[in-house]
């Protein structure tokens, strides 16, 4: 390798790692907008029949199951640097709509329904290197509150095949507090503008309850769903 080529590589590395004066220093605020991809990694336990017209059963239905599919949505984050390295971040977004597909004996029905997931989070992050570094990786930890809306079973073939003709189902899911583990990096394009990518993991589960009405008969059942989503956030940020 020639001496001149080595100088070019060294200069390129220096330009990548240094620049944007005080881009992420104490007192800085960054607003970012971008794309969330929410990728659940778990699945549901077998459906359990809880009661029929108030008479308790507590009977699992072996071989039944469901899976929450991945979804995309628009995200927004606000970050404040308390020091050159320590920052707090609030993250939210338009709630993604997840399709729910059958597994096991329910796999034949394909998509069973859908649900919207609300998951705002608050994190504390440690950003490596100094405030003038263009490329700054970070790690973070925080807390999230998740709740669900618009839970619905839309596949009438599934409802009829499972509970009989004329049956209808309403659904709900339990909300919960969860920890959030986060890694990522920001790259300063200028002193004001950034691009960023982060990956978060939430050990998240919920209990979905289903109330089925078939004529005068009311059937209540439930399943525990492990979502454990991995969430990526590709964004553009502005410092002020």
From TrEMBL:
The keyword Signal applies. Residues 1-23 form the signal peptide. Its main location: membrane. Keywords: Signal. Coiled coil: none annotated. It holds the Pfam family OmpW. It is found in: Cell outer membrane. PANTHER family: OUTER MEMBRANE PROTEIN W (PTHR36920:SF1), PTHR36920. This is OmpW family protein. It comes from Cupriavidus malaysiensis.
């Amino acid at each position: 390798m020639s001496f001149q080529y080595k100088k070019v590589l060294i200069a390129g590395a220096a330009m990548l790692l240094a620049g944007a004066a005080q881009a992420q220093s104490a007192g800085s605020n960054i607003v970012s907008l971008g794309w969330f991809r929410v990728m659940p990694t778990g699945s549901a336990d077998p459906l359990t029949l809880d009661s029929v017209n108030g008479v308790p059963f507590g009977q699992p239905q072996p071989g039944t199951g469901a899976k929450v599919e991945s979804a995309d949505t628009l995200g927004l984050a606000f970050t404040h640097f308390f020091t050159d390295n320590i920052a707090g971040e609030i993250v939210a977004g338009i709630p993604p709509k997840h399709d729910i597909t059958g597994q096991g004996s329910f796999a034949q029905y394909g998509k069973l329904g859908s649900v919207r997931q609300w998951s705002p989070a608050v994190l504390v992050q440690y950003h490596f290197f100094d405030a003038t570094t263009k490329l700054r990786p970070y790690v973070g930890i925080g807390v999230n509150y998740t709740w669900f809306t618009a839970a619905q079973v839309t596949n009438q073939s599934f409802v009829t095949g499972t509970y009989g003709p004329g049956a209808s189902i309403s659904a709900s899911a339990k909300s919960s507090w969860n920890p959030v583990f986060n890694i990522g990096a920001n790259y300063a394009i200028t002193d004001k503008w950034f691009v960023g990518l982060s990956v978060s993991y939430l050990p998240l589960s919920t209990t979905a309850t289903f109330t089925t009405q078939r004529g005068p008969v009311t059937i209540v059942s439930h399943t525990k769903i492990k979502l454990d989503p991995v969430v990526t956030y590709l964004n553009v940020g502005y410092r002020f």
